[in-house]
């Protein structure tokens, strides 16, 4: 078995790229070459970083013995949870090459220097915001705000993200609700994120939504008192140290009510837009107006209002039952001089049970989210000069 990693630190003269392969183990089969194998590996992505193994400099050797190929892959960390997936992906891709009959993947670990170089190349400098949050990036940052908890702010955040994904937009979620961070449970993915060289990698849910949550850094069930400066520091860190792609949208689940976090977001990301969630009831609407006004004061652009739990759909006659009464959505949108972007019916399907917060496609709420996603995707972000 090839061992590029021992050779790299041991025998200086030993080849590091498998170029002795034909000498030691017979001729490579006709039809494929080391160069061809390397080219094919450009199609295999590191599942966490989302870039191909060649450009990440993770391929440390290719050895060909007859129709057998061994590939040396340097992982970012020894305990990389992605080993299995990388093995499968490399094997699947190389087995497509004519003449290849067996593929072996030989793992090693990057040196500290390699890892540091990789992370710097991915991330820019350590003190900077991740590219997605910078003004010049195409990524739109949608901060989902509400006046109080329990109105469905997180439900809106995850379902809007899922709908954007359905209409073909790339999207990631930042759960900034320190007081009631619930996205990991809602999406059924509560594992701790992988941290490499100071860079935090988002977690991917079973349905393929990538997110990071303040809750990822607190033990389950632990009560934490967050003082405002700490919240802001933690939030800043998530916008700086997380390896965000530059998706079309990042949806931010904001803590309810507080103007403080809105201010931080507005100061750091002048291009961020706010979406206000309310229920029909007057009390929710009153505090939603407040939260919306705070967002306006912080110079966030308010793009619209979502009235959640707006009505129930009668299963027999299809009629809308406004069981809560109230016209919260209307009131909030009038006061904030914006539009209602969506009215989401009540459907107990998304029960809030672990992993069960996404409405099934084709249901009333999912359709409402699809419409919202389409209208959001059709609008362009209005650039604004940083005022604060
Ligand atoms: N449209 C809806 N239909 C049925 N249940 C809903 C709906 N929206 C939210 N819920 C439920 O209401 C509860 C509160 O929603 P959540 O999104 O956690 O609110 P928030 O983030 O504002 O505190 C959750 O149990 C959620 O499953
Ligand atoms: Mg919530």
Task: Please outline the helices and strands.
Elements: H1 4-9, H2 21-25, H3 34-41, E1 59-65, E2 68-75, H4 83-95, E3 102-109, H5 112-123, E4 140-146, H6 153-166, E5 171-175, H7 183-186, E6 195-196, E7 199-200, E8 203-204, E9 210-213, H8 228-241, E10 249-253, H9 259-268, E11 273-278, H10 282-297, E12 301-313, E13 320-321, H11 328-335, E14 340-346, H12 364-378
Parallel strand pairs: 2-3, 4-10, 4-11, 5-9, 5-10, 11-12, 12-14
Antiparallel strand pairs: 1-2, 6-7, 8-9, 12-13
Helix pairs in contact: 6-12, 8-9, 9-10, 10-11
Bound molecules: adenosine-5'-diphosphate (ADP) and magnesium ion.
Which features would summarize this protein structure in a list?
388 residues; alpha/beta; Rossmann fold; 2 domains; 9-stranded mixed beta sheet; 12 helices; 32% helix; elongated; binds adenosine-5'-diphosphate
Structure description:
The longest helix is centred in the C-terminal third of the chain and has 16 residues, at 282-297. The strands form three sheets. Strands 4, 5, 8, 9, 10, 11, 12, 13 and 14 form a nine-stranded mixed sheet that branches. The protein has a three-stranded mixed sheet with strand order 1-2-3. The protein is elongated. It contains twelve helices and 14 strands. Strand 2, helix 4 and strand 3 form a beta-alpha-beta unit. The model is unreliable at 7-27 (pLDDT under 50). It folds into two domains: 4-110, GMP Synthetase, Chain A, domain 3, CATH 3.30.300; 131-378, 3-Layer(aba) Sandwich (Rossmann fold), CATH 3.40.50. With 388 residues, the protein is α/β, with parallel strands linked by helices. The termini are far apart. Helix 6 (153-166) crosses helix 12 (364-378) and helix 8 (228-241) runs parallel beside helix 9. Helix content is 32%, strand content 20%. The site of adenosine-5'-diphosphate (ADP) has 21 residues, from helix 6, strand 12 and strand 14.
